[in-house]
């Protein structure tokens, strides 16, 4: 087996590998993945993105990585393991884009990436030379994804890792709908952040597009609550009061200043909402 | 724009940047900050201090960083982002001390640092060349604090980042009060650790100062509980029994051996207590 | 004091130090340890394994590190601090094996390591030159374990750190019992993972040993629940249905597909179970 470059001359590249999982930090999962990576490439720079994604929550992981990946240097290898189908039929893949590589199960967790990045190839990881020798039934993060990411970080051509595929899985990303004369936009909550703010699937750019010249009316209704102020900062709302804001992802976000809007109003992911303009 | 040193010859310094936030590890916040830092200085050594500070809890973050910062090598850049006022009036700053730099919002989170370190200058971060190009309304950790810390790690003179200020914000740090003939000290709980131990604002040095020669009486009362044993270790108390001890920060700490005193007795931050000597 | 190698010529080795603690990520504990390590060896590569172990849960920490340690490169220094007896009689130790070093309190947290690794020496850490100057009563992670690990990472001979001992503490590891004609194996739950899966103390190798040729019957009973399917993947069970599987540690594991079996059935660590073969 030729695993060069790197192996022959020890000149492993110092590539960044990020980890995003639902493994938490009270078990051996994350640590084992890190060990596997460092065993293969001692110079890999391992960066924790997030490990407390809700168990099995593929859409949330998909959204999270879509928010974070592009801030990393070109060449970063993002390894995302939210993998309820581990050991089953779902394929392990690496998606190579113009700027990054994404190692993940083919379960839709890369859905936003497929839209946001220019995809060069998606490879079905099949070549066992780049896996651990023993593959467990329950932990491919350690046995397949971590070693594949580590070998990639050593400069292995992904094409040596398996065949290209083009039928990779995309989640059903909930899309906002525009109705009326463009003065109503229906959307939903796609992520609740640690502060209890509600991230919606409505990009502000869509709102802008439908704002008629001279109009400034902006109202959001969600679960009977009416929010009619698009704030410039959280503090624009009184302490505890609700507001809407353009979030750090460019989407409309709903919040209660210094409170958890999600908990206070019992709002969960998927909750529908409507933006009314004019 | 001249961003040297570093940029010209690629000789970025290998500086440590620590991160302390209330961003948790289930969203994209921490990962995005790390990406931004590595994009600017691929050789920065990013160290997570803590990300599970209670949301918006500036005093707790202030206490936490005051306990941890001084164990790091001189030259370390500490980036602290607990920032409920993001996007509003509060200023982003860097406080440069004789030994460290602290990048943070000017909301009091550096209050203990101002007392413990020799402050050389506090700079209002204003120069957009050291921020991301786009500044969001809700996430200056990514857009301002992380890039500023990364540029500092490349050796940029902080004075190039904005004007010096001297009206930076200090929290109201709760002080212990001594009464009687110095035989009573009133204080409060300022931090509850993960084990449920109660960290007080009473330094043991203050107790020592008021211990009369030959006296050894030491009693703490808190929420109707009386603790009259200053232990040499947690195990000095029976399993489940309460005790007082000199904590790792030098303050009086109250505990129940292998139990959570805070949860068991329903004690929260701010709870008053009294130490009675003699 | 001669702390060479490393000190003289600055050629500190670039060793990996892993951290496994019950310190959480909302206080200064983990950050302080990292600072201490980097102060002593700026080139140490610090890797977080897990910090959310249940407070004081020595057996769980012992199991966790036994699952993760061996995936790291030979030479890695594993630092494990779950230390309810801090400041008391328990000794700080370093266990040197053929492949790794383990720095920990001598409270049984290395029990599995003693079985799985070839032990070369166990040293009672006594030499204060390798501790911080001030030793607190409550936080030896920072004052003793982190500095000892950092000095080891600089190549210090552990024998210079204290005397060898051979009466180090081993936990009572719960063993499975085989009864009948080998067709019944009694065990218990030793770990509950973040997904609510139940990890048992029954290695699949023990099951294999007692499977008679031609027999395929396999039933597990636990708390009145009967599971009679040894799955090849979690998905082998319907969504929500229970199953048994060979876990990533090689032990029998019980699960409910995409649900938390532990929470749903109210099962805690220690719960007994029985495997019935044939």
Provide an overview of this structure.
The structure is a homotrimer of 278-residue chains. Chain A has 6 helices and 15 strands. With 278 residues, chain A is an alpha+beta fold. In chain A, strands 7, 8, 9, 10, 11, 12, 13, 14 and 15 form a 9-stranded mixed beta sheet that branches. A 6-stranded mixed beta sheet of chain A has the order 2-1-3-5-4-6, with helices on both faces. Chain A is elongated, with a radius of gyration of 21 Å. Residues 1-11 of chain A have low confidence and may be disordered. The B-C interface holds B 16, 18, 20, 25, 45, 47-54, 64-65, 67-73, 76, 191, 193-195, 231-236, 245-249, 253, 257-258, 260 and C 22-32, 34-36, 38-39, 42, 46, 48, 55-56, 84-89, 136-139, 142-143.
What layout of secondary structure does this protein have?
3 copies of one chain form a homotrimer.
Chain A: E1 16-21, H1 29-40, E2 45-50, H2 58-68, E3 77-81, E4 92-97, E5 101-105, H3 111-116, E6 119-124, H4 140-153, E7 177-179, E8 184-192, E9 198-203, H5 204-210, E10 218-222, E11 225-227, E12 230-231, E13 242-246, E14 251-256, H6 261-265, E15 272-277
Parallel strand pairs in A: 1-2, 1-3, 3-5, 12-13
Antiparallel strand pairs in A: 4-5, 4-6, 7-8, 8-9, 8-15, 9-14, 10-11, 10-15, 13-14
Helix pairs in contact in A: 1-4
How would you characterize the largest beta sheet of chain A?
A: 9 strands, mixed
Radius of gyration of chain A: 21 Å
Basic shape of chain A: elongated
Query: Secondary-structure element order of chain A, as H and E?
Result: EHEHEEEHEHEEEHEEEEEHE
Give the N-terminus to C-terminus distance of chain A in angstroms: 66 Å
Roughly what fraction of the amino acids of chain A lie in strands? 25-35%
Largest interface, with Cβ-Cβ < 8 Å? A-B, 43 and 33 residues
Helix content of chain A: 10-25%
Oligomer: homotrimer
What structural class do helix, strand and pairing data of chain A support? alpha+beta
In the predicted model, the low-confidence regions of chain A spanning at least 5 consecutive residues are 1-11
Number of strands of chain A: 15
**Average pLDDT, all residues of chain A:** 93
| Total helical segments of chain A | 6
């Amino acid at each position: 087996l030729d695993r060069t470059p790197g192996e022959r001359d020890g000149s492993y590249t110092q590539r960044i590998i990020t980890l995003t999982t639902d493994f938490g930090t009270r078990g051996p999962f994350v640590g084992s993945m890190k060990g596997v990576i460092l065993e293969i490439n001692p110079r890999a720079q391992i960066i924790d993105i997030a490990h407390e994604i809700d168990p099995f929550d593929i859409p949330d992981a998909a959204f999270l990585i879509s928010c974070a990946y592009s801030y990393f240097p070109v060449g970063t290898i993002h390894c995302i393991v939210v993998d309820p189908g581990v050991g089953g039929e779902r394929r392990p893949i690496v998606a190579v884009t113009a700027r990054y590589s994404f190692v993940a199960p083919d379960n839709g967790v890369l859905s936003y990436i497929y839209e946001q990045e220019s995809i060069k190839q998606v490879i079905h990881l099949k070549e066992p030379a780049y896996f651990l020798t023993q593959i467990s039934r329950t932990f491919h993060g350690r046995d397949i994804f971590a070693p594949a990411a580590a070998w990639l970080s050593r400069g292995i051509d992904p094409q040596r890792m398996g065949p290209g595929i083009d039928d990779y899985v995309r989640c059903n990303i909930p899309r906002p709908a525009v109705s009326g004369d463009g003065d109503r936009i229906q959307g939903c909550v796609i992520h609740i952040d640690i502060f209890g703010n509600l991230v919606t699937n409505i990009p502000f750019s869509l709102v802008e597009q439908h704002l008629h010249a001279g109009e400034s009316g902006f109202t959001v209704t969600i679960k009977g609550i009416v929010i009619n102020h698009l704030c410039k900062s959280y503090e624009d709302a009184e302490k505890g009061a609700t507001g809407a804001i353009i979030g750090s992802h460019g989407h409309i976000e709903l919040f209660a200043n210094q409170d958890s809007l999600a908990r206070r109003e019992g709002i969960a992911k998927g909750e529908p909402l409507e933006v009314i303009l004019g």
